[in-house]
Amino acid sequence: MVNRVADERNVLESFLDFHRAMLLRKVRDLSDADAARRLVPSATTLAGLVKHLTVVERSWFHILLDPAPGEAFPTTEQAALASFTLTGSDTVESLAADYERVCARSREVAARFDLDHVVPHPQLGEVSLRWILVHLVEETARHVGHADILRELTDGATGSV
């Protein structure tokens, strides 16, 4: 549940955690085939959304805030589209577990910085942790909305599945 009376940081982190959990709820009880099924003209699938948001978390929190030597923030449209692409070894279980691990590390990385901490971004110039958190709330919530629609098209489930 989102903390409605906390300070700014806790509100932002609560909203992000809420949407992270909702994404996982949308895929947890689906078969691998259902999660990978294309139901719209684009390559967007429920499993692909989990994979994409895993890449988003890594990019914004791990690579931007705590880069390993040689890591670069993905900046091409091709990289974004590739992040939705499933492989033969991708399962609901493996994708969800990877997403949970990456989100846990994202929390750890973000906790080391204050909201005003600024880092360079290859396309935007500079961004603060505050901006990154707001952006991740927006990006995750938008894709959870997509997941809502795809889940309803899959088996009719709606709401907080």
Can I get a quick summary?
The protein has 161 residues and is mainly alpha-helical.
Helices, strands, pairings?
Elements: H1 8-27, H2 32-36, H3 46-65, H4 77-82, H5 92-111, E1 118-121, E2 125-128, H6 129-155
Antiparallel strand pairs: 1-2
What does this molecule look like?
- The radius of gyration is 16 Å and the shape is globular.
- It has six helices and two strands.
- The longest helix is centred in the C-terminal third of the chain and has 27 residues, at 129-155.
- The chain has a single domain, classed as Up-down Bundle (Four Helix Bundle (Hemerythrin (Met), subunit A)), CATH 1.20.120.
- It has helices at 8-27, 32-36, 46-65, 77-82, 92-111, 129-155; strands at 118-121, 125-128.
- A two-stranded antiparallel ribbon has the order 1-2.
Number of spatially distinct domains: 1
Corresponding CATH architecture: Up-down Bundle
Helix content: 55-70%
Q: What's the mean pLDDT score?
A: 94
Question: Main sheet: which strands, in order across?
Answer: 1-2
CATH fourth-tier homologous superfamily = dinb family like domain
Beta-strand fraction estimate: under 5%
Q: Can you identify the CATH class?
A: Mainly Alpha
Structural class: mainly alpha
Characterize the largest beta sheet: strand count, sense, and whether it forms a barrel.
Answer: 2 strands, antiparallel
Task: Report how far apart the termini are.
Answer: 15 Å
> What is the overall number of helices?
6
- CATH topology: the name is Four Helix Bundle (Hemerythrin (Met), subunit A)
- Compute the gyration radius: what is it? 16 Å
InterPro entries: DinB/YfiT-like, MST-like
Protein name: DinB family protein
